[in-house]
Write a structure and sequence with these properties.
The structure holds two protein chains of two kinds. By secondary structure, chain A is mostly helical. Chain A has two domains: 267 residues, no CATH class; 235 residues, no CATH class. Helix content of chain A is 80%, strand content 0%. In chain A, helix 2 packs across helix 8. Chain B has a seven-stranded mixed beta sheet, sandwiched between helices. Chain B has a four-stranded antiparallel beta sheet with strand order 2-1-4-5, covered by helices on one side. In chain B, strand 9 and strand 10 form a beta hairpin. In chain B, helix 3 runs parallel beside helix 5 and helix 4 packs antiparallel against helix 5. The longest helix of chain B is centred in the C-terminal third of the chain and has 16 residues. The chains are: A mainly alpha, B alpha/beta.
């Protein structure tokens, strides 16, 4: 271990001597700058909480604890992800490993050394960001030396509880996935983490912190901020331990430290066990390259229809491209937040509900427009020259065009209508709003899908490109521009009949249904013309397409 | 089997094919030779339906290709010059996908697929995703895909690129066998030894025109050359008048 430490120290010293000193100093200066900015911010927040006169001390601490929990929740995710990535890099790819394994050093020593490296690299950034939080919390709520030491102990155990699960995952994931599939697996993992943070933060409803003066019942308010689900996570334990330290409650503090230590100890034992059982085999696999474990299910799924081979191909390609389907997780998280928001919107008057229903439509179409830019637009450029297989086969070209349209249109139509239905289930809109939703959503989604498909096929790229590349093409930007123009124009056109209806309802006058119907019909006719035009244009372009 | 008459194609101002004519009988192997950019791939792509001709005509079994291309495509299979495949399908799934497009009955294709995985020695990659294939394995898959649908006209564009010599030899043996069974084979290549080994007839295409075509042995005897390589260089370097043997 001593020689390994010396090795690292010399590498660091030599890197400074080789002229990387400037880079190092710049890095330190940037870090100090960010710490100062964060320090200024947290000084204001904790200072404000500390000086509030109208609240008792325990309530101030309670609010500070909830705030800390949100901060540490984000930092915990960072810790987990960076530790996972650092594990894969340092345990398996690191260039010095082959050299180290060739020495008479025991594998366990090399592993423990590498584990320390992982811990240092993955927790450095989190520790850096946490410094101002810890400093200003201690400054206002826990200023004595003993309190600071207790906070630091809890923080250290928090770091261990974040780093060790990352290491466990880093050792387990390569056992289940081939080397080539690691990158998509990691992107899925990071997306799941991001989605969880989005949902968790929304569950905490941070907007309630802005208005504590309106609280009529402190206990009720405190209860509403308390979410039992967080009690199982280390970020909540750290926030609680800090709050208990500030309140000078020793026994409960040590109970939390015991839980922390137990978790960290158990994870450490697990990591060392995995090292003994798996590490060398996995190291071998990662460096030689492993085969996937994919099994074909083609035989089980045979239907007699022209579109079935294409449907099978599209579904398999979609499900085997985590970068594609994992985007749906983010959409799912946003929808969850959307639903939570819907349930929590205060309804002082029924008219607000009508306004919300209108906003709900905008939101639904906006999401579908986004889905089209991510999935429909790149679908044809993403095929690339592999289209030659379809073009050279006795399969009508026009059927491929229709298939691509339907493949994206049907799920998006369902998603759009489901988004509206969620709002309806929560707020119980009236029959007019439901009718309006069908009148607006159906043609809007058909048109947007068609627009994205037709503009997408005009990108004329000769190589299969990733969706991220395709959407920033001239046609991609054109799609985003025209879809937004369409949305604004469509909603503007519908604002008139909607306004007429609700105004007459509000004033208890007779609703001019004939006028409203004429507006709606006009809207549908304009959309029909656009849809027919774009469908025919797309078909013409498609049939003339050469490879 | 195949009659191509005065085929023309332009890309913008550049005329890629300036009136190509040739014919191919059932069971015949015809090699289309020529330098880069001469028009070999364009000719094959038009026959495969990837490009539309600007002029000229194609007939297969006496039926006009532009009128009945959907029906006639059932008789044709194409191996492109670049091994682009659907990377998220396994090799077996890719073959099934292509066979589905040709509506080949399941049992019939099953036997063929099993045979080609063994014959071209890539059985262990059968269930591996195509994205993990080497260039050579991709090429084997493309060739198997085209052969598995049992075409009557096989279009091959540089089929042996990236293929190891052992499998390449097996491929040549198999090509001769399918030709013996009546499949017409048109292939474009730069590998002159390959053309000399398996083609009965060749056509040399330069700058969008076939400058010479005919029976390989007769052509070489006429020109007094013992190898196709010598004959090719002499012809390409001094092409002024089209020659018909």
């Amino acid at each position: 271990m001593k020689s390994l430490f010396k090795l690292k120290f010399r590498q660091f010293r030599n890197s400074l001597a080789r002229g990387e000193r400037k880079k190092f100093i710049l890095f330190i200066l940037l870090g100090v700058f960010f710490t100062l900015v964060l320090g200024f911010f947290f000084n204001k927040i904790f200072g404000y909480l500390y000086q509030l006169q109208e609240f008792p001390g325990y309530f101030k601490l309670f609010l500070a604890e909830k705030l800390l929990m949100m901060i540490f929740m984000t930092l915990f995710s960072m810790l987990l992800l960076s530790s996972l990535l650092a594990s894969l890099d340092i345990f398996f790819i690191s260039r010095d490993l082959h050299l180290l394994f060739a020495t008479p050093l025991p594998v366990r020593s090399i592993f423990v050394w590498k584990m320390l490296e992982v811990s240092l690299f993955s927790s450095a950034m989190v520790a850096f960001f946490s410094l101002p939080v810890l400093f200003y919390f201690s400054h206002y709520f826990a200023p004595s030396g003993t309190q600071v030491l207790r906070i630091l102990l809890a923080f250290f155990l928090f770091l261990a509880s974040g780093v060790l699960p990352g290491i466990v995952l880093g050792l387990v994931i390569p056992a289940f996935f081939s080397v080539r599939r690691l990158q998509p697996v990691l992107s899925v993992f990071s997306i799941i983490l991001i989605s969880s943070i989005v949902v968790f933060l929304r569950l905490l409803r941070p907007e309630r912190f802005l208005n504590p003066s309106e609280i009529d019942n402190v206990l009720k308010y405190m209860g509403s901020l308390d979410l039992k689900v967080f009690y199982y996570f280390p970020f909540a334990w750290l926030a609680r331990a800090m709050s208990l330290t500030a309140g000078r409650e020793s026994a409960p503090y040590w109970r939390i430290i015991a839980v922390f230590a137990l978790l960290a100890g158990a994870l450490l034992v697990l990591v060392l066990g995995l090292q003994k059982k798996l590490y060398l085999q996995l190291f071998d696999k990662m460096n030689k390259g492993g085969k996937g474990y994919f099994k074909s299910r083609w035989r089980q799924w045979r239907l007699n229809n022209d579109y079935v081979p294409l449907l099978r191909k599209e579904l398999k390609t979609f499900l085997r491209t985590p970068a594609q389907w994992s985007q749906l997780l983010i959409v799912g998280a946003l929808v969850a937040v959307f639903v939570i928001n819907m349930r929590m919107i205060p309804m002082p008057a029924p008219s607000v509900k009508n306004f919300v229903s209108y906003l709900n439509l905008i939101m639904a179409v906006f999401i579908v427009a986004g889905l089209n830019s991510r999935f429909t637009f790149p679908s044809i450029p993403g095929e690339g020259p592999a289209l030659a297989h379809v073009f050279s086969a006795p399969f009508p070209k026009v059927k491929f065009y229709r298939f691509k349209l339907l493949f994206h249109l049907v799920p998006q139509l369902l998603i759009g209508l489901a988004l509206f239905a969620v709002g309806d289930l929560t707020l119980h809109f009236d029959a007019f709003t439901r009718g309006m939703a069908v009148v607006f959503l159906t043609p809007a989604i058909v048109f947007l899908t068609l627009l994205s498909l037709v503009l997408g096929m005009q990108t004329n790229e000769s190589n299969p490109l990733s969706p991220e590349h395709v959407i920033v093409s001239k046609q991609g930007i054109s799609y985003m521009f025209w879809s937004m123009i369409y949305l604004v124009a469509g909603l503007g056109l519908l604002a008139r009949p909607v306004g007429i209806y609700y105004w007459h309802r509000y004033t208890h006058g007779a609703v001019p249904y004939m006028e409203i119907t004429v507006w709606f019909l006009g809207f549908e006719l304009v959309n029909l013309a656009l849809i027919v035009f774009y469908y025919r244009r797309g078909r013409k372009l498609w049939l003339a397409r050469e490879l | 089997m195949l009659e191509v008459h005065e085929l023309q194609k332009s890309f913008g101002k550049r005329q890629a094919l300036k009136g190509i004519s040739f014919s191919l009988a059932a069971g015949e192997i015809y090699g289309l030779l020529g330098p880069n950019g001469a028009g070999k791939t364009t000719t094959l792509k038009i026959l495969a339906g990837l490009l539309a001709a600007d002029g000229g005509s194609i007939a297969i079994d006496g039926r006009r290709y532009h009128r009945e291309h959907h029906e006639l495509k059932k008789l044709i299979a194409y191996v492109p010059d670049q091994p682009f495949l659907y990377s998220k399908l396994s090799g077996e799934e890719h073959l099934n996908f292509y066979a589905d497009l040709y509506k080949i009955p399941y049992q019939k294709r099953r036997e063929k697929i099993d045979f080609f995985f063994k014959y071209f020695e890539f059985e262990e990659y059968r269930r591996e995703l195509v994205e993990n294939y080497s260039a050579g394995t991709r090429q084997k898959l493309l060739i198997s895909q085209a052969l598995a649908v049992e075409p009557r006209l096989l279009l091959l564009d540089e089929p042996l690129v990236s293929i190891d010599p052992l499998v390449g030899k097996k491929f040549k043996v198999y090509l001769k066998e399918v030709a013996r069974q009546g499949t017409a084979i048109l292939f474009a290549t730069h590998i002159l030894t390959l053309a000399q080994e398996i083609c009965r007839r060749i056509g040399i295409i330069v700058d969008g025109r076939i400058i010479i075509q005919g029976n390989l042995e007769e052509l070489m005897t006429l020109a007094g050359k013992s190898s196709l390589e010598e004959f090719y260089f002499k012809t390409v370097l001094s092409h002024e008048k089209p020659v018909q043997a």
